[in-house]
Specification:
alpha/beta; DNA polymerase, domain 1; TIM Barrel; 2 domains; 12 helices
Length: 340
């Protein structure tokens, strides 16, 4: 099987061109063909000699693969199914919103974290995505050229696949790659402590932390990873960094009726985040099979939001998108598709 060229950094492409004895400048030419001109085959790289194209195509292919299925929501959201890791599948979600067009990107097949409220976690873990499989999601959807923003909030825990994540971010933000501003990209995490620190030191992209509770015992009920990566430790780590400039820090907080949506919970969250330059996104819980949790009602969410705003924490209620096609937050899963 041929190796894929997409998902490779400039240094990796330089290693390939050196192996074939190509001139040094050809590495940047290949990167330009891949990420700026977005070719589908090596033969389209017409400023490479025929000899070099033949050599390259003997061992490599561009590696772009179209999604195998598309589902369209009544609100315009689109969910795409991609083949990954052999016989497994992942999902990506395209969310158009006026002048913005966001793609929710997956980083793993399934997830290890087993959060109670998440269908991906209930699918189990089936493998890490390569940088090629991550970048392919961005390049191969029909609306790729319209994208204004990326959120790594799809299937998987991005910080649990750190090396491939950081390679992908390098390709997306480098001048030889997509040349995107890091401000267009947000990476979500439940708080894999050592890799959160690496991410903050090695990348300038935005960070979103999945909190979902303001008391550790409640968070552990929802998220078993609280045992390994404690919320207080993650907050302490984040307080070491300056988020007052271009990079943005946000906290994701799914609202569950009668569990984490009281004013007492809001007071504790305001104390926890006091003095931090951050924002909180309140998210409606979307019911999934075999989970006995209910979403907070609108009044409770508004009270919670207003309390945080009144106490110096910027807080918004995120609009739900794509629930009718199981594309909303926490609903991505390919378990049934994998069985088929």
């Amino acid at each position: 099987m041929k190796d894929k060229l997409i998902g490779k950094t400039l240094n990796e492409i330089k290693e390939i061109t050196a192996k074939y004895g190509m001139p040094g400048f050809t590495a940047k030419q290949i990167a330009q063909w891949l990420y700026e001109k977005r070719v589908s085959s090596v033969d389209e790289m017409t400023n490479l000699s025929k000899k070099h194209r033949d050599m390259l195509s003997g061992d490599y292919e561009v590696g772009r693969t179209a999604p195998s299925h598309e589902a369209v929501s009544a609100d315009g959201t689109k969910k795409y199914l991609f083949n990954a890791a052999g016989d497994k599948y992942i999902e990506s979600v395209y969310i158009p919103d006026k002048e913005r067009a966001t793609l929710c990107v997956s980083s793993q097949v399934g997830c290890k974290m087993n959060c109670v409220f998440c269908m991906t976690g209930k699918q189990g873990f089936n493998g890490d995505l390569t940088s090629a499989e991550i970048i392919n999601q961005i390049m191969s959807i029909p609306d790729s050229e319209k994208l204004t923003n990326l959120v790594f909030m799809g299937m998987g825990e991005p910080m649990d696949n750190y090396e491939e994540l950081i390679k992908s971010l390098d390709i997306l933000t480098a001048d030889w790659g997509f040349a995107w501003s890091p401000k267009r990209i947000t990476v979500s995490t439940i708080g894999v402590e050592k890799n959160v620190r690496r991410f903050l030191d090695e990348s300038k992209c935005h960070l979103a932390v999945s909190l979902h509770a303001s008391f550790p015992d409640k968070r552990q009920e929802l998220m078993p990873v609280e045992k390994a990566w404690k919320m207080y430790d993650i907050i302490s780590l984040l307080k070491e960094y300056d988020f007052s400039k271009q990079r943005r820090l946000s906290f994701e907080y799914i609202m569950f009726h009668g569990f984490n949506d009281s004013i007492e919970d809001a007071k504790e969250l305001a104390l926890l985040l006091k003095g931090m330059d951050c924002r909180v996104n309140l998210i409606r819980f979307h019911a999934i099979p075999n989970v006995d949790l209910k979403s907070s009602d609108e009044d409770a969410m508004v009270r919670f939001r207003d309390y945080l705003n009144d106490h110096g924490i910027i807080c918004t209620i995120r609009s739900s998108r794509g629930e009718d096609i199981f594309a909303a937050c926490g609903m991505l899963s390919t378990k049934e598709g994998d069985k088929k």
